[in-house]
Amino acid sequence: MLLARQKYLNGAAEYLLFMWQMEDLLRAVHFDIDTLEGFIRTYVPDEASFQEERKWFKELIQDMRSERVETKGHLSVLDEMMNELTYLHQTLLKVWKDPKYIQLYNEARPNMEMYAARAKGFGTNEVEMCLQALYGLLVLRLRKEKISEETQAAMDSFSALMASLSQHYFAMKQGDQKAALN
Question: pLDDT for 87-97, tens place per residue?
């Protein structure tokens, strides 16, 4: 998929948020590919791209059904990416002790604690919690709801941390440990 590929290249965190949105979109249209045709045509430049996107959505539907995540949960490939991000997050903090990453983490940590208290355990780890919070922000924006300055500041700290983690993730995936430390 053109859009999914672009999101992946923009960063692991952005890709996960996008894919969660696509899973929810498919659930909302009850996995009816024909219902999505108008949506797909809003961002594809030509008929060949439209067919490629339609095929991608059909494969996503098949994957979600085969993994039985039609009503909740995420595809295993997305869960695996989340696990990798979580492992890398811990590695950056405790093994590599990356100073820039630790600084971003320390800026986000009070917001994570406040979010965790409000979310009542929603999210199993810090990375997932940050991503779920950012996904919630996306939903609020789609609904055109007002976002407080405090919430926006918290989300900015989560976004900065996840952007840094995404950069480290792609460096790691490319096998560049030096880049992963910068």
Answer: 999 999 999 99
